[in-house]
Amino acid sequence: MTTRHPNLLSLEQLRVQIEEDKVDTVVVAFTDMQGRLQGKRLHGQYFLDYVVEQGTEGCNYLLSVDVDMNTVDGYAMSSWDKGYGDMEFALDFDTIRLLTHLPATVMIQCDLVWLDHAPVVQSPRTILKAQLAKAAEAGFTAVAGTELEFIVFDTTYEAAWDAGYQDLPAANQYNVDYSIVGTTRVEPLLRDIRNSMYAAGMNVEGAKGECNFGQHEIGFLFDEALVTADNHAVYKTAAKEIAAAHGQALTFMAKFNEREGNSCHIHLSLRGTDDGIVFWDGTGPDGGERTPAYDRFIAGVLATMRDFTLLYAPNVNSYKRFAGGSFAPTAVAWGLDNRTCAVRLVGKGPSARLENRVPGGDTNPYLALGAMVAGGLYGIEHELELEPEQTGNAYASDKPKVPTTLREAREAWAGSAIAREVFGDEVVDHYTNMADVELLAFDAAVTDWELRRSFERM
Which residue ranges form the domains of the chain, and what is each CATH number? Predict the structure, then answer.
């Protein structure tokens, strides 16, 4: 069983740090639909005197806006007609962490509840927790790890904005996949991120270069799925803050340019609530074999892959990754250690797990993990039979395809009977509207591609 990281603080330890003037700022934050941390900064003494007992609130429009924080129509939970009231930030005191890259600051992550303390079911963290509760009822605990890639640029975020994100100087000028020299050039930033995240209560594995120019990945040890999602959200925000302090900028967007995109491969397995192995039977020949529960879980993830793609790939840009020969999947298929498939199986015994290769760097970890757990549990509950393994090049196979556009994924999600069964109508309708908002904004935009193609020649 995974254990609580020793660098995480208890509420009493935080109280001492504030009283000894070692901490003066408490960030309370939740993760919004877009996977971003939102919240407020509280003075330490005010936090102790009032917020610990009385809590704090924020406007319910925070789960009903677009990327630019504009209020938009179509959300049942929040609107002008309903007056845009408050939600309560329900502090999770198991998530208190020092942010050493900021002066005298800690962060506490939150759930969202209504003022009558009923959960806000559309909140990403609540969506994941609901699926983990179903897993616990079935006798399972989900453990997971996320592999999040990013591209580093030798420019500030402000300068990148002013340049329209064009012609940005990448931190590396060539493919640095596994390159020690290439990572050394970016090591001051990578080291700062690694050490800051360890101090913040994360089990850091290491860093490696990736294929796109300036592309890197920092890996973290697997943990219980909720802890992994919490860590992912904090890391993604902190990495940007640390890059900014170095006078650099980094992006997690799924497809920054025509080269390799930023992936977020998600590894997941089930344990028994007693920490027993669920996915592997060690009594068979050659070190054992997959269990029926493992096969049914994989079958469920595959059976729901197209319907749930919106939760793995939530933006217009997400779908630019899915191209043949790109190491991003196009085929809804599984294979043993086969990186051309949407689902890759790796490991044996206690390390047996499936890797979902569909999510990109822009994925919301709570939604993606919630979708994987929901799909897998659906497969176990309905005893779905696992199709034969895909061998060879899945890009050239006749397997069903991952949706190629946000509009296609939106239609699959909105019309999915399984999604409505496992997530409920409120969640399905809410995230359908999220897709509609994104599509409406994109359809109204005039792109650089259109300008270059049409300004003079059309």
Answer: 11-120 (3.10.20.70), 131-443 (3.30.590.10)
